[in-house]
Amino acid sequence: MWSKRSRFFIILALSVAFTVDLLFHILPQLYQRSIRSQCTCDEPSRQSAAPRSWGSSHQAGGRSGAAQTQILSQDSGPFKLRKLFSHPFYQTQRTPSDQLLRRKDAVKYYSYKAKRNNRQRKKAQEENITAPYYSSRVYLNSNWLKFQLAIDRDALYPRSDPLIDRLVEDLAGLGITEADHTADEKALNGKCDCKKVVKPSGIQLKILLKFQNFGKATFKPMKQKREEETPEDVFYFVDIQRHNAEIAAFHLDRILDFRRVPPVAGRRLNVSKEIRDLTRNEDLKSTFFVSPANNVCFFARCPYMCKTEYAVCGNPDLLEGSISAFLPDLYLAPREFIPHPWKRSYTFAEREEWETNPRYCEKIKHTPPYDRGTRLLDIIDMAIFDFLTGNMDRHHYEVFARFAKDGHIIHFDNARGFGKHSHDELSILAPLAQCCRVKKSTLFRLQLLTQEDYRLSDMMRESLLGDRLAPVVTEPHLLALDRRLRVILDTVQKCVRKHGQEDVIENDMGHVFDGVNLNSTSTSR
Ligand SMILES: Nc1ncnc2c1ncn2[C@@H]1O[C@H](COP(=O)(O)OP(=O)(O)OP(=O)(O)O)[C@@H](O)[C@H]1O
Ligand SMILES: [Mn+2]
User: Fold this and answer.
1) Binding annotation for Mn(2+)
2) Which of 5, 88, 154, 401 makes the best surface tag, with the fewest CB within 10 Å?
3) What are the boundaries of each domain within the chain?
4) Class level of CATH domain 335-506
C-alpha cells in the first residue's frame, strides 16, 4: 500500500484543494447570496436587461429598491390591471377601422431611408464616426414598424396587444446608434428642410434618438425631481417639463382606454456615451460641458432663453428621462396642427373668450370640425385626461390628416402634468362643464375606476411599476387622481341634473350596456 509519506502528500493536496474551493467558490457564493437577500438591487446595465414589462415576462428585474420589493410581494404581476382590461367595458368591439399606413408604402419609404442612411454611413466612417448599417432584416420585423402599421382611425394602438409592451421594452433597453436635435429645434436654427415646422420649443430640451433597429424616439430629460411640486407663483406656460409626467400620462391614457398617447418608457442614459459621442450634430455637441460638480451637462441651443442655466446634467453621466416612440414620419402620415378651442392666453393679462362667455360652447358646437362626428367629444375626453394630470398647457392638438375630421386626437406632450398634487385646476374641465357632453364609454370607465377593485390610483401604481424608473410619480399624485375623478363625475352629475341624461351622455356603445344602471356605479364611496 501507500507509504506514510505519499499518504501525507495526498492529504495535503486534498486540504489545499478544499481550501481553494472554500476561498474562491463557496464563500463568495454564500456572500453573494447574503447580499442578494438584503439588496435593493440597482438597475442592471441598459442592454443586458430590458425592463420587465407587464405584457410579457413577469419576473422582477431591472427594478430599483421600493418598486422591486413591491413587485416581489405580488406574486405574478399586475392582477388588478389585468382584471381591469378584461372588464366588459374594455372588451367592446368597434367595427374594423381604417389603418393609417399602407404596409407597402411604409416598407418602401423606410427601405429607401435605410439605404440612404447606409450611404451616409460610408461618409461618416471616413470622418471616424461609427454609423450603423441597417439591413431590412433589422427593421421589417421590428416593434416600432409594427406599431406604426397598427395605428388606425380609432386609436394609436390596439387594446391588450403585447406589441406595445414589447415596444416599451425596446424604448427602455435597445442600443442607441445616433442622437440629434429634434426637427423643430433644427427648424429654429434654420437647418430643417421639413415642410411642416411645428412651433418653437422654447427652453424645452428634447433629443431625437435612433435605435439599432432603425426605430426613432424623442428623449425628454429629467429637469425636476419627482418629489418637487410646481411653486404656486409659476405660470403654466413657463412651468418646467417633467419627464415623469410623460411616462405617467402614457399609462393613464392606456388605463382610460383612450390610447392616444404614443408609447413612452423611462430610461437612464449615459449622456456622454449615448448622446454626445453618438451625435454628428456639431451644434448639439458644442452644448456639452462639465459642471463645477464634475457632472456632464448640456443645454438646448435655441434663439431665446437657452443658456447654461437651463442645462440638464447627468450624475456624473447618467441622466434619466422619458423616451417616446415616434409616430410615422410626416412624409408618410402628415398631421394637422390645430389650435385648441379652449386654449389659454399665453400672456399674463389677457383672457380667452371661453373664460368670459358662458355660451362659448354653443358657438364651438356649430363651428367645423366640432359640428359633427366625435371631435368635440374627443376634446372633452382630452379635458378629462388633462384635468386628471393637471396639465394646463394644451394650446394645440394634432390629428392625422388622412382621417380628416373623423380621426382621433393625438395626446402629444403631457410633460406639464403632475406638477401640483395638492391643487385641482377646475378650469381644465371647462369643455366638459360648458358643453355638458360626454361619451358613454368614457363615463362608464371613469365610474368603474372609482370602484374599490378598480381604483384609478391602484391601477396607476401597478401599471407604473412596470417602468424602469418606478416609482414614476409620488404617492400624493396618485391619490390626487382619485380625488379628481370624483370631481369629474360630480361635474357630469350636475350636467345630468340640469339637462337630462339623454342630452349629456352620448351613447357610443350601442345597446350592449343598456341594462347597466349608471347609478349602480355611483361616485360616492
Ligand atoms: N413621439 C413622437 N412622434 C412624432 N412626433 C412627435 C413625438 N413627440 C413629439 N413629436 C412632435 O414634436 C412636437 C413637439 O413635441 P412636444 O410638445 O412633446 O415637445 P415640447 O418640447 O413640449 O414642445 P413645445 O414647447 O412646442 O410644446 C409635437 O407637437 C409633435 O409634432
Ligand atoms: Mn410642449
Assistant:
1) 413
2) 5
3) 335-506
4) mainly alpha
